[in-house]
Amino acid sequence: MRQPSVIARRVAAASVSLVLAAGAAACGPEDSGAQGAGGDSAPHKGGTLTVLNSQPQEDFDPARLYTSGGGNVPSLVFRTLTTRNRENGAAGAQVVPDLATDTGRPNKDATVWTYTLKAGLKYEDGTPITSADIKYGIERSFAPELSGGAPYLRDWLVGAADYQGPYKDKKGLDAIETPDERTIVFHLNKPEGEFPYLATQTQFTPVPKSKDTGTKYEEHPVSSGPYKVVSNDNDGERLVLERNPHWSASTDAERKAYPDRIDVRSGFDSAVINQRLSASQGKDAAAVTTDTNLGPAELAKVTGDKELAARVGTGHFGYTNYLAFNPTVKPFDNVKVRQAIAYAIDRSSVVNAAGGSALAEPATTFLPNQKSFGYTPYDLFPAGPSGDPAKARQLLKEAGYANGLTITLTHSNSKDFETSPEIATAVQDALKKAGFTVELKGLEDNDYSNRIHDVRTEPGLFLAHWGADWPSGGPFLAPIFDGRQIVKKGANFNTGLLDDKSVNAEIDAINKLTDLDAAAERWGALDKKIGEKALVVPLFHPVYKRLYGKDVKNVVISDWTGVLDISQVAVK
After folding, report:
1. N or C: more exposed end of the chain, with fewer CB within 10 A?
2. For 342, phi and psi rounded to 5 degrees?
3. Three-state DSSP string of 26-62
4. Are the beta carbons of 110 and 195 closer than 8 angstroms?
5. What CATH number has the domain spanning 319-544?
6. Distance (Å, whole) CA 539 – CA 287
7. What span, in angstroms and rounded, lies between the C-alpha atoms of 34 and 552?
8. Nearest-5° angle of CA 22, CA 27, CA 32?
9. Residue 483 clears pLDDT 50, i.e. is over it
């Protein structure tokens, strides 16, 4: 998820469609006893699952969705070549086959990937799913009127950079071959060992060309998953799903599809959602949320109630909140000033400002603390949980500011417990002890996002966050630290403007690896190498706490999404 605002939305919808999550999701969840959650009897089929959300499930077209691992609600309707493993904790961060028989077969240098579809795959109308349908589904995602999905295919596929989709260019993409109805081959510009992760995105959903209605397709997309769309009101404000009679569990090892019906309702205030889930009256007893967390005050109440506490799902999404420097702005061009700030940070106060240790974990690494990302523990500027103002003052003196330094910290005014005033104030208080006078500059959310992602307006010091498109170090480190991804006119995420040839070369080398465990180890080492440059100060990783109704069973929370996976849920 390249854009943090998108990430947060996905985490809300998934976690990772989120995600928040949407979004979202890293370390293993605390309640991993999924089979017993929500009741004593074994999960069974039947009933209606209600989903209570704050945000609508907009753009319900596989071309337009930007989700992690195929999303939460979307993956009930849209199957893809690969998908996330629907298991608790770290096991859930693995990529597994979905429509395909395996996670893909690369050539020697990972520039060509071949997939074979499982036999017997069918749409909701009983017609067969073919490789040509997947090719067409990908091609339509390039149409300008269907934009919004993950951008990787435009960068990765040979000759795809200027492709405008099948409505304008009926020739299609030569980079995707379909030699027969069950085989599809992708030709890439460069080695991409993580292509199986990308193949979990909804752009890899099959779309029958004869049923494509363009921008209206989202109203009734043709289902390849266990549920079909019965109604889609007000652009996803209410989405009703019922069983797809032609879906077969024999071809789908991941989705359980226990409920007969899923009723997704949105537009509710977060407090209302949590109150309804807490009370669990009537239909709300069989309800969940895919985008609403418990806040600090709500969590305090829930923790004191044994019955409610047993109905809280805990998970982690690959996400880091951090301080970002623009080293072209004085005094942040001086590495000692950046190091002084790193030593001065009081992470315990920042965690408290983010809602407390139940909702945030202190971070000293940029990569989230999960194995799949390549997490390698390090603390290059060790200051303990409360900071080291003496060491910071020493560095500040060495930088030429023996009498202290006045700086500005830019943040968002949104009450998101991430880049908001609470976090900024905690940073301000910590830096004051080290000789910094910090002036806070709060911006409305849109203005904040526009300014920090434009190299022409990027502040010298600001609060930022980043989440992963899939659980690997690649989509976490490359957009932020690959010098070739610096955008001088447009949305830029390499906020430190790092363009280090050795870093760029290592990113390319890791991308060639198809051994994802070996790649993870290299991502972790690269994270530490970049960390030495002090271009960011990691602050914390969020923790997701969400209530679910008393009749909800089979709660599964993976390290991929960090939130309850509704494809596994059963209701009494």
Report:
1. C
2. -60, -40
3. CCCCCCCCHHHCCCCCCCCCCCEEEEECCCCCCCCCC
4. yes
5. 3.10.105.10
6. 34
7. 11
8. 90
9. yes
Element (H, E) at 8: helix 4-13
CATH number of 48-257: 3.40.190.10
Read off the tokens for 19.
Answer: 């995600």
3-class SS letters over 66-112? CCCCCCCCHHHCCCCCEEECCCCEHHHHCEEECCECCCCEECCCCCE
Polymer length in residues for the chain: 572
pLDDT per residue as tens digits for the range 54-95: 999 989 999 999 998 999 999 999 999 999 999 999 999 999
Residue 23 confidence (pLDDT) above 70: no
Domain boundaries, the chain: 48-257, 319-544
Q: Give the C-alpha separation, 205 to 43, whole Å.
A: 29
Chain segment 485-516, per-residue pLDDT in tens: 999 888 899 999 999 999 999 999 999 999 99
Reply yes or no on whether the pLDDT at 326 is more than 70.
yes
First to last CA, the chain: 35
With 0.85 as the threshold, say if the pTM is over it.
yes
Among 35-39, 246-250, 469-473, where is mean pLDDT lowest?
Answer: 35-39
- Which residue carries 């911006």 as its tokens? 443
Provide the token pair at 384.
């303990």
Three-state secondary structure of 417-461: CCCCHHHHHHHHHHHHCCCEEEEEEEECHHHHHHHHCCCCCCCCE
With CA atoms as reference, report the closest residue to 12 among 1, 4, 3, 24: 24
The DSSP-derived string for 325-380 is E-TTSTTTTSHHHHHHHHHH--HHHHHHHTT-TTTEEE-SSSS-SSGGGT-----S
